[in-house]
Write a structure and sequence with these properties.
Layout lengths: L7 H4 L2 H11 L4 H6 L2 H8 L10 H15 L1
Length: 70
Amino acid sequence: MRAAAGDPVAAFPWRAAMAVAIGRRGLAPEAFWRLTLRELRAVLAPERTAPAADVGRLRALIGAAEQTDQ
């Protein structure tokens, strides 16, 4: 069965979505197909990481903490 041209379901990158959700995130295939659109969006969202610490600022904080301990 072929999807009609311009069909948004056919245009969605299902293979890529499954690769991320099942392959990288470890979701079971059955769970993948039960996801709501909101849940699918959350699973496919890039992982959010904290910004790298500013080493100079970290050293200043450590120095200030050491001075208050004395």
